[in-house]
């Protein structure tokens, strides 16, 4: 397609390494065949509830969250974004996917109990119960997978260690399949299985992420993997005259970099805190790219901090954006981001129990006859994004390791938003305003 602006947003988010305990004789009632090359399929069997179909359930009608829930989800996204920024170096480019984090962690929550579950509901779900979160994410995945004009793909999988040391709780497995359509695999955790998982990731992310697992810890018993892929074209193509070469971008350290700017006129904008944002839709009008320019002298880090401090509603600002002429320039850019300290990010938010070997209650993942403790030992998050005149390519991956032990009115004048210095950006669902991806660009170097 000539001069097609292709937006390709892939988010592999959520490889969760689970380690558990006890001796089982069997696993789930599900036949699985990895969609991989040079990989043999495996069959896993076990007793399941009589009323369990082994398939994803149809979403409940009209699961669009209300104003309170949207605000909660928006705040949870901003909170984890802010703490992620704070965990890094000043002026660092940061990109996360709150949506994929929600999918991955919600599957885990179905194995949590007591105060551990309460903390995860508060800091991961923004206060939404796991029951409601299951239904909401079930609806979300259905909506994304059936979107028109753009292409979404949401996929989940469970990988069990075939070493006879652990049996998965049927109710946990049932929810993973019914709400998240999880594929199920059971293999020995060796180099070939690491290769299989990486191939699964590679396929589900449209070849944008090729490695998430290198080896396995001694105690690893289960991986939970979530992937989200997105492909969409801009609602309006960039003409040749709108591609501006050899323009200047002022980096966070006040140095400058030459870049190519993309110029367009949009028709929706909003103000949020000390910043002004624009909305650039993809074909079909369901999803958009959002760019926010903080006021002069305000860094993206300071901007996000103030949004969190003042409890600003990001999703409401997007949903209620004003109509008016907006002159926009944004740079072509490529950036990679990685954070292996996401456990510390969640701890700073206030969620500590899931990571405490002596206090975490994640025993709902494994059968009740287990005498082992189970807790999350590590969360790794990596992302990549490319934005150019042809569109956007992006990917995100999260690895969560769980260890074990025994025992509006239009504006009168045009708005000008020139992203020629550090800015905040997002990919959002226009219906809810909730970000699927959320990032800040500080340096073009």
Task: Please explain how this structure is put together.
With 445 residues, this protein is of the alpha+beta class. It folds into 2 domains: 44-233 and 335-386, Antithrombin, subunit I, domain 2 (Antithrombin, Chain I, domain 2); 243-331 and 411-441, Roll (Alpha-1-antitrypsin, domain 1), CATH 2.30.39. The chain is 24% helix and 35% strand. It has 9 helices and 19 strands. It has helices spanning 67-86, 98-109, 114-123, 130-145, 170-180, 191-204, 300-309, 314-319, 342-349, and strands at residues 6-12, 15-18, 30-32, 42-44, 94-96, 151-161, 183-187, 222-233, 243-250, 256-271, 275-281, 287-294, 322-331, 333-339, 372-388, 391-406, 415-418, 423-429, 435-441. Strands 5, 9, 10, 11, 12, 13, 17, 18 and 19 form a 9-stranded mixed β-sheet that branches. Strands 1, 2, 6, 7, 8, 14, 15 and 16 form an 8-stranded mixed β-sheet that branches. It has a two-stranded antiparallel sheet with strand order 3-4. The radius of gyration is 22 Å and the shape is globular.
């Amino acid at each position: 397609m000539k001069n097609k602006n292709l937006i390709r947003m892939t988010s592999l988010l959520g490889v969760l390494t689970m380690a558990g305990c006890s001796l089982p004789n069997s696993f789930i009632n599900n036949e699985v065949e990895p969609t991989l090359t040079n990989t043999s399929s495996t069959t896993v069997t076990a007793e399941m509830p009589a009323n369990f179909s082994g398939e994803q359930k149809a979403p409940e009608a009209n699961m669009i969250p209300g104003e309170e829930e949207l605000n909660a989800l928006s705040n949870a996204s901003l909170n984890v974004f802010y703490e992620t920024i704070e965990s890094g170096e000043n002026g660092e480019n940061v990109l996360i996917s709150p949506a994929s984090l929600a999918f991955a962690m919600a599957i885990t929550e179905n194995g949590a109990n007591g105060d551990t579950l309460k903390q995860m509901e508060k800091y991961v779900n923004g206060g939404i119960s796991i029951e409601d979160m299951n239904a909401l994410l079930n609806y979300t995945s259905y909506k994304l997978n059936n979107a028109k004009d753009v292409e979404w793909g949401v996929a989940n999988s469970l990988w069990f260690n075939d070493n006879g040391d652990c049996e998965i709780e049927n109710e946990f497995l049932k929810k993973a399949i019914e709400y998240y359509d999880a594929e199920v695999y059971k293999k020995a955790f060796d180099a070939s299985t690491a290769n299989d998982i990486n191939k699964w990731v590679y396929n589900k992310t449209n070849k944008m992420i090729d490695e998430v697992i290198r080896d396995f810890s001694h105690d690893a018993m289960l991986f939970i993997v979530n992937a989200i892929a997105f492909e969409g074209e801009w609602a309006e193509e960039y003409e040749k005259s709108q591609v501006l070469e050899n323009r200047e971008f002022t980096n966070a350290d006040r140095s400058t970099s030459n870049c190519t700017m993309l110029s367009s006129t949009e028709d929706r904008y909003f103000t949020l805190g000390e910043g002004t944002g624009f909305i650039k839709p993809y074909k079909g009008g369901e999803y958009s790219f959002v760019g926010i320019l903080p006021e002069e002298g305000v860094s993206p880090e300071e901007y996000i901090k103030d949004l969190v401090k003042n409890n600003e509603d990001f999703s409401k600002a997007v949903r209620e954006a004003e109509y008016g002429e907006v002159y926009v320039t944004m740079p072509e850019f490529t950036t990679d981001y990685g954070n292996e300290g996401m456990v510390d990010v969640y701890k700073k938010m206030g969620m500590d129990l899931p990571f405490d070997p002596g206090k975490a209650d994640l025993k709902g993942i494994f059968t009740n006859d287990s005498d082992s403790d189970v807790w999350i030992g590590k969360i790794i998050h990596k992302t990549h994004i490319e934005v150019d005149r042809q569109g956007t390519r992006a990917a995100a991956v999260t690895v969560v390791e769980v260890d074990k032990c025994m025992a509006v009115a239009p504006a009168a004048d045009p708005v000008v938003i020139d992203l020629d210095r550090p800015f905040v950006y997002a990919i959002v669902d226009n219906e809810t305003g909730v970000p699927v991806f959320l990032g800040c660009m500080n340096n073009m170097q």
